[in-house]
Amino acid sequence: GAEQREKQYRAHRGFGDRRGGVISARTYFYADEAKCDQHMETFLRCIDASGGSSEDGFSAIKLTALGRPQFLLQFSEVLVKWRRFFHQMAAEQGQAGRAALEMKLEAEKLQEALANLGIATKGESQHWFTGENLGMSGTVDLLDWNSLIDSRTKLSKLLLVPNMQTGQLEPLLSRFTEEEDLQMKRMLQRMDVLAKRATEKGVRLMVDAEQSYFQPAISRLTLEMQRRFNQDRAIIEAYDNVTVDVELSRREGWHFGTKLVRGAYMEQERERAAQIGYEDPINPTYEKTNEMYHRCLDYILEEIKHSRKANVMVASHNEDTVKFTLCRMMELGIHPSEKKVYFGQLLGMCDQITFPLGE
Q1: What does DSSP say about strands 105-106 and 139-140: parallel, antiparallel, or unpaired?
Q2: Is the dihedral of CA 155, 156, 157, 158 positive or negative?
Q3: Are 324 and 297 in contact (CB under 8 A)?
Q4: How far apart are CA 139 and CA 101, in angstroms?
Q5: Are 324 and 294 in contact (CB under 8 A)?
């Protein structure tokens, strides 16, 4: 069913070499499972080195180094379609235009809609919304909805969603072959090994954001790791749709961590979108990028002020962004000694910002 896949999430021969147009980020390529194990061993050595050289160290990993990128493409498409389906139903209940977390579907109406679409009978869908924290309020929000796609429930194997263009129902998850299923499990096992070692060594693990077409899967997998390992402090860090993820951490009581970056894959992303024919995922202007970056950053700084259960790394050589962060830290009463806000710069780049920060 590859030809039924959305353009953005199809493997594309012309962009098989993901380094084209990327000058500021390392890219890994899948050779075989043994190569992925080698990458994991390298990351383990980095974690050990970081743990041995500083009290509060970081180590960065890339998920495309730990498994087959096609799995990340497929899983990303599933997550995007599933979320889009929620927004479609919210619009039908008169909630179009609301912020993601303000959309609340009435469980009763939702069950009727699923039955009318032929996705699940009322009886079948009833038990989906009666979990520990699900549907107690009689409404279902995006976090409740997302939690239905969960490795523990296996619901994703059964689910169908309507294709907006054709009106036909399509399987949400392409059937994985047995080999693909094994590759996926091995990728998750490697992540687990790295997170456990990082916890033992007291090192924070930063999961790099990568190309937009891998990112929904990377964010979701990283979020699952945060839920498991960030009970006492932020060990796992990543960037996703910040407001939704922060809200999940509040509800479940774990520490949220994120590293905010901008622009690493811009030229390549634009070229791929234009050639394959899907919407350009990049902000239209430099100013819009800054605006989004600062809005996300400010949201996390406010969360640090209110709960002290969040951490952020400002990974930027942008002088205005650094000044903005320092200014907001002073206003919100966040002191550097609390170790809640970090700054990341590449060695030898913009030393005129890095050295004053160090002081």
Answers
A1: antiparallel
A2: positive
A3: yes
A4: 12
A5: yes
Q: Which amino acid, one-letter code, is at 15?
A: F
**Whole-number Å distance between alpha carbons of 258 and 264:** 16
| H/E stretch holding 207 | strand 204-207
Question: Is the whole-model pTM more than 0.85?
Answer: no
Distance CA 33, CA 204 (A): 26
- Tokens read off for 327: 């200014």
The CA distances from residue 220 to 72, 79, 121, 139, in Å, are: 10, 8, 28, 23
Element (H, E) at 204: strand 204-207
Strands 169-171 and 236-237, by their bridges, are unpaired
Residues 6+ apart with CB under 8 A from 187: 36, 63, 66, 67, 68, 71
pLDDT tens by residue, the chain, 359 residues:
555 667 776 777 666 656 666 666 667 777 889 999 999 999 999 999 999 898 888 999 999 999 988 888 888 888 888 888 888 888 888 888 888 888 888 888 888 888 887 777 887 777 777 655 555 578 888 888 887 776 555 555 556 777 766 767 777 766 677 887 788 889 989 999 999 999 999 999 999 888 888 888 898 888 889 988 998 887 766 544 788 899 999 989 999 999 998 877 888 888 888 988 888 888 889 998 898 899 999 999 999 999 989 999 999 999 999 999 999 999 999 999 999 999 998 888 889 999 888 88
